[in-house]
Design brief:
This protein is of the alpha/beta class. Helix content is 21%, strand content 32%. It has 3 helices and 9 strands, in the order E-H-E-H-E-E-E-H-E-E-E-E. The strands form 2 sheets. A 6-stranded mixed β-sheet has the order 4-3-2-5-6-7, with helices on both faces. The relative contact order is 0.21. Bound molecules: inosinic acid and magnesium ion.
């Protein structure tokens, strides 16, 4: 029988919840008096989006982009594939692009370019995690939950070959 790698906790659910409060306060302040169109990058950002969305105090609409960068591996494909499109008209909107993790930066760069081409008023970016050591294109997010070292992580929406998204905490995986 093949061994399932065991998750080892890096960030507890409580620590994540506390950090999200601060992040949401900053975002609420920034967008005061405006409306947000939050564009979530599926699948990985689904949990982060759901938690962040419920802490926002400015009116927020939701749309989703589906982008896939990893097959069943832990190494990103250089060109992420956009496989789902936006339903909203972005003209005049304040778009907040939300992703689970900024790694090489390819996904966010491509998503940002796609959004900008649809002529919103403004575009800002927010990621739950940042692995700055692995960046290949200099992309910086406007808001970052946690900066982490360059190791593969799972949980809180992030997967390894489709698994572990349901963990309420962030973990690294080690083979048992
Ligand atoms: P990038 O295009 O290299 O910046 O990678 C971003 C995407 O790769 C994220 O949206 C994640 O879906 C995925 N990803 C990058 N690092 C990890 C990781 O450590 N665990 C799980 N998914 C990751
Ligand atoms: Mg992703």
């Amino acid at each position: 029988m093949s061994k399932v790698p065991q998750p080892v906790e890096l960030l507890s659910a409580q620590r994540i919840a506390e950090r999200l409060q601060t992040l949401a306060q900053q975002i609420n302040r920034f967008y005061q008096g405006k409306e947000i169109l939050l564009v979530s990058i599926l699948d990985g950002a689904i949990i982060f989006t759901a938690d962040l969305l419920r802490l926002l105090k400015v009116p927020t609409q939701l749309d989703c982009l589906r982008i896939s960068s990893y097959g069943n591996s832990t190494t990103p494909e250089t060109t992420p594939q956009i496989t789902g499109s936006l339903k909203s008209d972005l003209k005049g909107k304040h778009v907040l692009l939300v992703d689970d993790i900024l790694d090489t930066g390819n996904t966010m760069k491509q998503a940002t370019e796609k959004v900008i081409a649809l002529h919103p008023d403004t575009v800002r970016t927010c990621v739950f995690l940042d692995k700055p050591d692995n960046r290949t294109n200099g992309f910086e997010a406007d808001w970052v939950g946690f900066s982490i070292p360059n190791e593969f992580v799972v949980g809180y929406g992030l997967d390894y070959a489709g698994r572990y998204r349901e963990l309420p905490y962030l973990a690294k995986i080690k083979s048992s």
